[in-house]
Write a structure and sequence with these properties.
Helix content is 24%, strand content 20%. It is an alpha+beta fold and 275 residues long. A 4-stranded antiparallel β-sheet has the order 1-6-7-5. Strands 2-3-4-8 form a 4-stranded antiparallel β-sheet. The protein is elongated and about 60 Å long.
């Protein structure tokens, strides 16, 4: 699933091209992704100008004249979605489900598994949308620090790694980035969150931030279907220390990397370096 770095890379790739452009046509090639794609949504979008593109967690938020009678287009890439800028009129391929057509280009949403989301929020208060209002803190925001995470986990006995992936607590930290952040901080993914000291949280939060920032600079991770808006692939996964490296030597102690299942997901870690 595309996580915060992949969504942010997608956003950055669109910024030079779409803000200030009006939507001149909308093409739906399927009636439903995760939610229905009603005909009225296409009609509502046509003629609106995209003023800005922001991100909240793993959601891309397109400001379509929200303060001037418009609203917000909310997009989630789902499990396998990706966005590409293509020349208008480029023949659609299998799984190319949505085109937003602009005067100079088209934004194409490809989603093989059709778990993505495309929703409309009328007006300017998108933070109140039910999918957005329940989201946790942004891990790249200045208010996310070790003291905040320490306080937020005082009554949380669950292992720290699944908690980091809980979007109601912290948004956008997927499986790859949780595993890599905990390795950088030297914290076992099996350790109960409430048994981690304030000092260790003050190490973990910068590790999370640096992991995410490094991933964004690397274009994200292309493990399966994810590509950039220009069709290129991310390469962060090539530099992972533990993720998907079961049995390979730890880059610090050279002991084999272990793998366990937590909350239905594979967790990779070094039992010696992470305590």
């Amino acid at each position: 699933m595309p996580e915060l770095p992949e969504v942010e890379v997608s956003r950055l790739g669109l910024l030079p091209f779409l803000p200030g452009q009006r939507i001149v046509n909308v093409i739906f090639r399927t009636a439903k992704l995760r939610h229905d794609l009603p005909a009225w949504l296409a009609t509502r979008l046509i003629g609106l100008r995209v003023n800005a593109i922001s991100r909240r967690g793993k959601y891309l938020l397109f400001d379509c004249e929200s303060t001037a009678g418009g609203g917000w287009l909310i997009l989630h890439l789902g499990m396998s979605g990706s966005l590409r800028l293509v020349r208008t009129g480029t023949p659609a391929q299998k799984h190319d489900h949505v085109d937003l057509v602009f005067p100079r280009t088209s934004l194409r949403f490809r989603d093989p598994r059709r778990f993505g989301t495309l929703l409309w929020h009328e007006g300017d208060d998108v933070a109140r949308h039910p999918l957005i209002a329940v989201l946790g803190i942004e891990p790249l925001s200045p208010v996310f620090d070790g003291d905040w995470l320490y306080a937020a986990t005082r009554r949380r006995s669950a292992p720290i790694k699944p908690l980091l992936m809980d979007s109601h607590l912290v948004v956008g930290i997927g499986n790859i980035y949780a595993s890599e952040s905990l390795f950088r901080a030297g914290i076992s993914p099996l350790r109960s969150a409430q048994r981690i000291s304030r000092e260790r949280y003050r190490v973990l939060v910068p590790a999370i931030r640096s992991t995410l920032e490094t991933a964004i600079a690397a274009g994200g991770s292309s493990v399966r279907d994810y590509v950039h808006s220009d069709g290129g692939a991310g390469c962060f996964q090539l530099s992972c220390a533990v993720y998907d490296r079961i049995g390979e030597p730890c880059p610090i102690c050279e002991r084999p990397v272990h793998c366990v299942r937590q909350a239905g997901r594979s967790t990779f870690y070094c039992p010696r370096c992470q305590r």
